[in-house]
Amino acid sequence: MDTPSLPPPSMGYSPPVATPNTLMPRPERRPTPLAFSSPSTFSPLPPQQNQLPRTSSQTPRSLSSGDGVHVNTPLSQFSTPPGPPLFSPPLRPAAVPFRATPTTPQPVPFSSGSTLPTSSSPHYSNGSHELSLHRSAGLDESTFESPYVLFSAHKVLKRKKLANVPCLGFGALVSPGREIAPGPEVVHREPYRCQSCGAYANLYCEILIGSGQWQCVICQRLNSSDGEYIVPSKEDLQNWPELSSSAIDYVQIGNKRPGFIPVSDSRMTAPIFLVIDECLDEAHLQHLQGSLHAFVDSLPPTTRLGVITYGRTVSVYDFSEGSVASADVIPGDKSPTEESLRALIYGTGVYLSPVHASLPVMHTIFSSLRSYKLNIPEASRDRCIGTAVEVALAIIRGPSADMTRGIIKRSGGNCRIIACIGGPSTYGPGSVPYSVSHPNYEYMERTAMKWMEHLGQEALRHETMVDILCAGTCPVRIPVLQPLAKSSGGVLILHDDFGEAFGVNLQRASMRASGSHGLFEIRCSDDILVTQVIGPGEEATADSHETFKNDSSFYIQMHSVEETQSFSLSMETKGDIKNDYVYFQFAARYSNIYQAGISRVITVRLPTVDSVSMYLRSIQEDVAAVLIAKRALLHAKTSSDAIDMRLTVDERVKDIALKFGSQPPKSKLYQFPRELSTLPESLFHLRRGSLLGNIVGHEDERSVLRNLFLNASFDLSLRMLAPRCLMHHEGGTFEELPAYDLAMQSNAAVVLDHGTDIFIWLGTELAAQEGKSAAALAACKTLAEELSEQRFPAPRILSFKEGSSQARYFVSRLIPAHKDPPYEQEARFPQLRTLTPDQRTKLKCSFIHFDDYSFCEWMRSLKLVPPEPS
């Protein structure tokens, strides 16, 4: 097929005209300063050269939706090549003693430390002739909905004064590791990147089809595609995935790690080390043994597993004896010596063995565990957690981690250490005194925290994550253990006991797909300033990524890349916006569990508007509520901070009404904007729930929930923020209702999903009917398992009857709407209209009076009119 050439230059110069095929000059841009977790400004870079700005008002594409870009549905309209396997946390069915609904996991996104394509410098026109410019056509822009990025609004206000109102704010939740079906388009080559700012070629770029040059949407510079984009017509540009899809995975197959030997399934070769507390009482030990037996039975046969127990010493179990279990013992009072590690690493012992080869021995080890016999309180028992993790890490990094026929194999993906802990670290490195009343406790705690953080960083360098699963009633001193999990890219989870929920999380932690060496890049139009990033990572150093002459992007080193994570971005406009669109590009580069290098590039553009009402209608209230909550939780490090943040939430709600609401005639109260009718209720749940409220008993629990929430995906964050209430009806159906205490009807069964907890409540009338209550309870448990099937961490599922002591967990999470007048109750809880007068009377008499505000009372205390239900 012949390639058309560019038109010959004209003899004279005529001023350029603003058409879709012409690039117009534009004032110089300035780099965008960004911040991670807290605002931070970088020194400005020199102005860019050789840039040809695009037109701001005309484009061959048009929006088919007045609400702009939507971000809730996956891309389904393209025929894509098969991508990498998808991540799905649920597990295979486990053996007794607990129930789980597992499936095979799917890998998470990957990062590529790839080099840039060797493209030659583009040639530019000197203005002697007009350039014919084209963009891929025939594309409905409203279909480019990105499930990886959720913006708080689908439109951006042009006026800086209105756009930057802090009470509402503008931002996005980015989940670069999320996996959906169908996945992004897959491209097996290097991406084309702007040689000026580093941005990636995308579907919004202007293309010169005669020369193949493309214009960057971030800095407007023309770049070469090495002739790749030279086509006869603009319709042919749709053959390039990056020019027709908003999300692209650039995949590099290969491995740069020295000593790596490819195996048939590197996913299954990544080892798991169990680090088990041997200082447990009999009751806790029995639960733990049941969970461990079920766990090892649920693992794929090729999974390599190691077992370490710890108390005052560290016992490393050796699987080289075949059917006999033996262990090498190392003192726990200090870090292991080089001699002791050399004996383990270069010895004949096999400390990581495939499950299919050593399953009977593993069951023998778990059955042989004995309860703690000395008469010493749980908190005062010697536990050398730090030494145990050090030993596990040393064995994982080899070199003889797995000896098979004399060949040394290194793990093909992220390794994982799972620590099963029942008490604090009180012995050896990283330990604290038994009692918090020790005169030097604060100093020793800070020292232990630093040591644990360093150990976690060392684990991360060796592609090993440390998950800490705590259970029991003994305080485990969360501030000491949290740095170890956080800095290695793992998680810390609290459980009531070592039973069902612990066992499910043990399985899901081991099968969680995770990418490593992650680098997250954020680029925006020069009109947008990213002021804060909250998420599972830290600001990347300059030597960890490529540098470009005019790169104003922000780089984050990701501790791990998982589906269950997200980054929260807060943004502002740097001035009044002149253009009709603003652009956002996010790139996650990492190595997946198969050691393939991936660069996932997501590009989104949002329309800009002058109308405040159009902007308010485009606001995604759930996303906005989650972003506000994450910003508040970032500062709620202590219980006193949480009280301050509750007052901050009150002021924020009041300011939103003052800035965007209205004041009815002859009224001193402000009307909350009707476009945001559900937002204040979500924030009311925030201030009184488990994140900022006082319904969580211990500060350790609040700390764990806070860290989990700050890094959690949108779905889990939303459920942790605002619980979901479902009432059971005969026939096994469920009706979704507002999370109000009016749902506590004696003849009903109710399921309340609060993210990390799912509660099943049975009314007294229903509980008295044995047959009906059993059927309702079974239906509710099935629903609870379905709701949490793919959730990590798996929530605890509690069921109880009306009036029982455990029912307080359920009641405290519901809005006390029984205090409101009947007309307001019916307006906000329409299901009441189906009750008979007798049932209404019984319901009213069942409530106990207490001082907590209802939602309507809280709004009026802020001098606001409660918004009408949507």
TrEMBL record:
Residues 1-132 are annotated as: Disordered. Residues 32-43, 111-122 have a biased composition (Low complexity). One of its GO terms (molecular function) is GTPase activator activity. Pfam families: Gelsolin, Sec23_BS, Sec23_helical, Sec23_trunk, zf-Sec23_Sec24. Residues 516-608 form the Sec23/Sec24 beta-sandwich domain. It is found in: Cytoplasmic vesicle, COPII-coated vesicle membrane; Endoplasmic reticulum membrane. Component of the coat protein complex II (COPII) which promotes the formation of transport vesicles from the endoplasmic reticulum (ER). The coat has two main functions, the physical deformation of the endoplasmic reticulum membrane into vesicles and the selection of cargo molecules. This is Protein transport protein SEC23. It comes from Zingiber officinale (Ginger).
